[in-house]
Design brief:
Two copies of one chain form a homodimer.
Chain A (H helix, E strand, L loop, with lengths): L2 E5 L8 H14 L4 E5 L5 H4 L12 H6 L9 E2 L5 E4 L5 H9 L7 H7 L7 E5 L6 H9 L2 E7 L2 H5 L1 H14 L5 E8 L6 H14 L12 H5 L7 H4 L4 H16 L4
Parallel strand pairs in A: 1-5, 1-6, 2-4, 2-5, 6-7
Antiparallel strand pairs in A: 3-4
Helix pairs in contact in A: 1-12, 5-6
The complex binds adenosine-5'-triphosphate (2 copies) and magnesium ion (2 copies).
Chain lengths: 256, 256
């Protein structure tokens, strides 16, 4: 595996799932074998590919709690070169069950360490909190991509997120880097947006991705058809933006 | 206290905080003494009134974990007839600390039971999860107001939320009712919105509030000035919508 990337931000509704589903789909489109991991009990990434969560027999929960292997949990997504480790409602109980287990933050890290799969990239969709599911993801990841809505409440939460990333780097995962900050649902007409962008640029400098994801209804419609946007409307502004994101991600990681 | 209302939905970014801050502000505007409780570790409701979270000495955390009283935790908001029990980053640790405590779901309920304050309404802003902070809020509340974005992922999570409400009603809080469903960030031009509205109407019938909150940038700008929208731009579409919401809420609760 070249890289494990967690898509994380405890602020809700900033486009974590939309980014995980569509970045993973375009990486696969560029021929990079990719595995998407749905670590959110809401299991939105799972349903973003039309997979009915009640039909999911084994999920992230089984990997974290029941020592299931990755091989027995993987499902196809309908996109070539892209598989998923799905979520289902069992994952809601994982938080409480993990609290009293030994080395509760490093369970996912150990599982990936022993995994010999042929995937180039593993993308992890995180829930909107800094709880044990997110901590497991940040501990297992090589880097974290931070989707950010250009609005006040989103900006407010960034320092808490970077605090947590620093703590994880010190204690649990010294190699954890910030992959970048991705501006999502961006509306160029709003003055609020450009003020936030200025703030973010000062803090994250060249870590801010050049690609900006515009607000585009096709991105919100695609999951209701159980498809990533590449299958739903590849010519839309939203699709083109995620295609550019995948390109920029590969370029930043040394692959033209 | 006439009523304790939890503003809850585990889906992130659906407008829970925006609804809590602005509904509470307009209830106060109509002369109803109101207390806002910020149960979210992100403490967005707290900063929505310009209160610096690092200056907050005592928060919801102290009430839940350190047996602090409500009286010693309350802060003014700058709005007449509206006080707040603020949040700060201590609340992040509350989830884990509560897991192994006796009757962990009913701590907030007990505190409100013994509270003799003169508030007419208590409004609780919940975090984007079905974890112990949200369970405490639902157990302490008389009813729950569900903000919902008219989009696929939001709709998907509703059955999980109603499951949880039913479980709480059976075991912990027999009187818990659904106050209503509130459509937020509604854009009449999108076909996606009208499809979701139809689905929601079938399920919740007359519990769907007539008042619909439109997408309006003034609502997103107001918190960056530390003000509820009533102080920031009372003539805006967003402000008028929340004013109508407060009126409809009072009407549904028998107060003209
Ligand atoms: N660029 C965009 N343009 C328009 N709609 C978008 C865009 N990105 C995401 N959305 C929609 O906004 C909502 C929130 O996005 P999404 O669910 O991906 O965020 P999230 O961070 O994963 O949320 P959560 O915190 O609940 O996990 C969804 O309904 C999604 O379809
Ligand atoms: N009607 C609206 N029009 C425009 N922007 C809105 C509206 N309601 C909320 N917002 C903005 O959308 C974002 C999400 O709203 P908000 O933070 O209130 O949701 P939330 O459900 O409390 O999120 P979380 O799940 O993180 O607690 C915020 O930046 C907010 O300012
Ligand atoms: Mg998500
Ligand atoms: Mg909120």
């Amino acid at each position: 595996v070249n890289k494990i990337v967690a898509i994380a931000n405890q602020k809700g509704g900033v486009g974590k799932t939309t980014t995980a589903v569509n970045l993973a789909s375009y990486l696969a489109h560029f021929g990079k074998e990719t595995l998407l991991v749905d670590m959110d009990p809401q299991s939105n990434s799972t349903s973003g590919f039309g997979i009915e969560k009640s039909s999911v027999k084994r999920s992230c929960y089984d990997i974290l709690i029941n020592n299931a292997t990755i091989e027995e949990t993987i499902l196809p997504t309908g996109v070539d070169w892209l598989d998923i480790i799905p979520a289902n409602r069992d994952l809601i109980g994982a938080e409480v069950e993990l609290v009293n287990t030994i080395s509760r933050e490093t369970r996912l890290k150990k599982i990936f360490k022993n995994f010999q799969g042929s995937y180039k990239y593993i993308i992890i969709d995180c829930p909107p909190s800094l709880s044990l599911l997110t901590l497991n993801s940040l501990t297992a990841a090589n880097s974290v991509l931070i989707p950010l809505q250009a609005e006040f409440y989103s900006l407010e939460g960034i320092s808490e997120l970077t605090n947590t990333i620093n703590l994880i780097r010190e204690d649990l995962n010294p190699g954890l880097e910030i992959e970048g900050v991705l501006l999502t649902m961006y509306d160029t007409r709003l003055t609020l947006s450009s003020q936030v962008v200025e703030e973010i640029g000062k803090f994250f400098k060249d870590k801010v991705y050049q690609t900006v994801i515009p607000r585009n209804v096709r991105l919100a419609e695609a999951p209701s058809f159980g498809k990533p946007v590449i299958f739903y409307d590849p010519e839309s502004k939203g699709a083109k933006a995620y295609q550019n994101l995948a390109r920029e991600f590969l370029k930043r990681n040394g692959i033209e």
